[in-house]
Amino acid sequence: MKKYPTALILLLAVASLAAAQEASPKRPFEIGLYGGLSFGANTWTSSYGVSWSDYNVTKVEETFIIEALHKLGLTGGVFATYYFSPVLGLQLGVGGMHETNPNTSYYQFAWLWKSDVDNLKSREFTDTGSLTAIPFSFNLVCRLGEESVKGVLSAGVSLFQNSMRAESTFGYGVDLIESVFVDPNYVVTQYVDALPVKIEIPDTKWTMIGANLGAGLDIETSPTTSLRADVRYYYCPGKSINWNFVQGTYDGMFYNKIVDRPFGQAELDEIAARGRTLTMKINPSFFQFSVGFFLHFGGAKAD
């Protein structure tokens, strides 16, 4: 998959050079401003599982999954192009994409008492997040067609400045053992439950090198202006980001026996001792559908 954008770029370069003519373009410079919608075609997931036991509970099984979705986002930017032949040019561009990323966490909590009585509980939480991507692109451009309507193909390398943040809810199983005086003796009672611990990806920024590939239709509106509809794919490699646990006090999510239970450094150390981490691989790649206004200028050159 990583070789795919490179192969398309090389193919575009060969096709453009083959189509190049000796005549100089009438207006070799163009600047374009565009806006539109973005859509990412993938789902991001995190998963976590653990087993434990204590006192009268012979086995506890916890399973946790987060699914985060791309949503329609807003995109915009600017391109500047120099055509060194009627069909072939070099292009610099900067864009921006912002979208919300709702996520759903699924938690399943199962336990077995020594008395062979088993129990199963589950809970679903809905939270949100957001992703921003700013690609800086250097493209090879090929425009095909005559007069007022032209096809425009472009592809090249993109440097992505990405920013991600998210909130979600994590299930953390706990138990409580207490002695209650029942005349004439103390009776030991055990309760189990799970805490709805808040987790977050704080505002995290990173840089990646990727690629972009686009195709558009340019319609001339005057000798120096045009409107362009463009479909473009921005490819950016994925990155794994850790979720952070929010320390505090939490009530049990299934029963009312465990309340104001602290979740702090001791619990974080226990999770670390299990050798487990909670991560999510973010894929910022997206499709872009845009409409732009382009200005063409520069005097005609002598043949």
Topology of this protein?
Elements: H1 3-19, E1 29-39, E2 43-54, E3 57-69, E4 73-83, E5 88-100, E6 103-113, E7 118-127, E8 129-144, E9 149-182, E10 185-222, E11 225-235, E12 239-242, E13 244-245, E14 248-250, E15 261-263, H2 265-273, E16 279-282, E17 286-297
Antiparallel strand pairs: 1-4, 1-17, 2-3, 3-6, 4-5, 5-8, 6-7, 8-9, 9-10, 10-11, 10-13, 11-17, 12-16, 14-15
Describe, in plain words, how this protein is organized in 3D:
With 303 residues, the protein is mainly β. It has helices at residues 3-19, 265-273, and strands at 29-39, 43-54, 57-69, 73-83, 88-100, 103-113, 118-127, 129-144, 149-182, 185-222, 225-235, 239-242, 244-245, 248-250, 261-263, 279-282, 286-297. Strands 1-4-5-8-9-10-11-17 form an eight-stranded antiparallel β-barrel. The protein starts with a helix and ends in a 6-residue tail after the last strand.
Average predicted local confidence, pLDDT: 90
Find the count of extended strands (DSSP E, 2+ residues). 17
Count, helices? 2
Give the overall silhouette: rod-shaped
Structural class call reads mainly beta
Q: Helix amount, in percent?
A: under 10%
The termini sit apart by: 43 Å
Query: For the largest beta sheet, what order do the strands appear in spatially?
Result: 1-4-5-8-9-10-11-17
Strand content: over 45%
Radius of gyration: 28 Å
Uncertain spans, ≥5 residues at pLDDT below 50? 13-22
**Major sheet: size, sense and barrel closure?**
8 strands, antiparallel, barrel
Q: How would you spell out the order of helices and strands?
A: HEEEEEEEEEEEEEEEHEE
